[in-house]
Amino acid sequence: MKPETLAIHGTTAGNGFGATVTPIYQTVSYAFDTAAELADVFAGKTPGYIYTRIANPTSLALEKRLADLENSIGCIATSSGMAAISSTVLSLTRSGDKILAATGIFGGTVSLFENILPRFSIETVFANAANTETFISNIDDRTKLIFLETIPNPSLEIPDIKAIARAAKKFNIPLIVDNTSATPILVKPGDLGADIVIHSTSKYINGHGTAIGGAIIDTGNYNWRNGVFTDIKNTSKKAGPLAFLSHLRNLVYRDLGGCPAPMNSFIMLQGLETLPIRMKTHCANALKLANYLNDHTKVSWVNYPGLPASDSNQRVADQLNSMAGGLLTFGLGSKELSEKFIDSVKLAKNAANLGDAKTLVLHPASTIFHEFDEQKRIEMSVTDDMIRVSVGIEHFEDIKNDFQQAID
Amino acid sequence: MKLTINGEEKQFENQMTVSQLLTVEQVKMPDMVSVEYNGQILKRPDFDTTNLKDDDKIEFLYFMGGGR
User: Fold this and answer.
1) Residues of A with CB below 8 A from B34's CB?
2) Which residue does chain B place closest to A238, by CA atoms?
3) Is the peptide bond before B30 cis (omega within 30 degrees of 0)?
């Protein structure tokens, strides 16, 4: 099935009434007729649900559908994108290990890597992933995972995922790719060699700014039996190729408690159904807006990977199905002018989110990146005059008119 | 056709797909099972199109959680 069909007709949680949408199984626990039945489920001898912190039918339907859309072997849905990242990282690292991560990625991820993980003696090296050779030269024998974003937010400097995946494979290091900004409609990172795909489903998959969620997807590319991760290798005796997800489900994810609310999983399933058509409109509107801003005399600079002048433009063609996503950044020359623009838009909302049907604008330096000093912000590709736009799916003329009146 | 299902050898008279095997074997929670086919996890959209053949090895896996 094609993605447009899978998004609508993929797995649904069974129900006995012919309901055409997956029901919301709003329950904490699941009752069994006998003590032996529940004991068998606890022992993993028979399938069954025990407790919604571990698994839930509505969330499992979302997991299956996301795995199918990413052409992958399995998925675990989480309470947020950050829960997906923290659970994954804590599954794969321990004291003394190192992470190699791209610069210019989401501030929340950077904060986890820089402020939380060092408390457990897990170090992160940040390097520019747009330059493959420089990036992979940072790999050493302590590196336990590599972390990228398909369209890094906010740098929008697209890495060569296939080349980095080749290097990661050579060193037996799992490559984790956050595909929030691109979604499987633009790219399936597993098809390029990535091992684990992360999503903040709160963004494009939800599509309407109504619920927080995340996902961890195993593409099936990494051989968990190779012994690099001893505890996961041991799990593989029972779970086979699903060892990583089983290790998560039965230990890290279970014990950290980052499960989604069943209601939110239902909302994400609804969002998935229209994801393919929404992404096409987000991308088309973003390209038109980037071109409009590029031609505007009062605009100092525009960064959109879909513009021919962008260093990432070839990678949009090679990796992203020739669609450059719904995010762009631009500057008006000073922090004051950029703030004045944000104060002047009427249609667009000033909000710290992306992937909403509505056009959203944000001043990253004073919001998501406010906890970092100016030097660090520049390293993270965040200038003081940067305005980030998550281009919505309104009619383009209305978006353009709003930006025009706010700039002029 | 001889298949090894969850480590146990079984004989089947008719050719079938993985989806049909789920029905024949009355696999619990067929929407939620993961199928390991000759050592590889089979992607769900391929259940209908994968025709089983003699000596195939099938494991039905669930990672829905259980106690430790």
Assistant:
1) 73-74, 242
2) B61
3) no
**CB–CB contact A44 B36 (8 Å):** no
Please report residues of A whose CB lies closer than 8 A to that of B44.
10-11, 64, 67-68
CATH code assigned to B2-61: 3.10.20.30
**Residues A229 and A303 placed together within one structural domain of the fold:** no
Question: A19: which residues sit within 8 A by CB, 6+ positions away?
Answer: none
- pLDDT tens, residue order, chain A (408 aa): 899 998 998 877 777 788 889 999 999 999 999 999 888 888 777 888 999 999 999 999 999 999 999 999 999 999 999 999 999 999 999 999 999 999 989 989 999 999 999 999 999 999 999 999 999 999 999 999 999 999 999 999 999 999 999 999 999 999 999 999 999 999 999 999 999 999 999 999 999 999 999 999 999 999 999 999 999 998 887 788 899 999 999 889 999 999 999 999 999 999 999 999 999 999 999 999 999 999 999 999 999 999 999 999 999 999 999 999 999 999 999 999 999 999 999 999 999 999 999 999 999 999 988 888 888 888 878 899 999 999 999 999 999 999 999 999
**Is residue A251 included in any domain, yes or no?**
yes
Tokens of B45: 């959209």
Does the ipTM surpass 0.85? Answer: no
Look at residues A264, A286, A301 and tell me which one is the last residue of a structural domain: A264
Same domain, A69 and A200: yes
User: Which of A67, A220, A250 has the CB atom closest to B65's CB atom?
Assistant: A250
Q: Which of these, B23, B20, B24, B17, lies nearest to B49 by C-alpha position?
A: B17
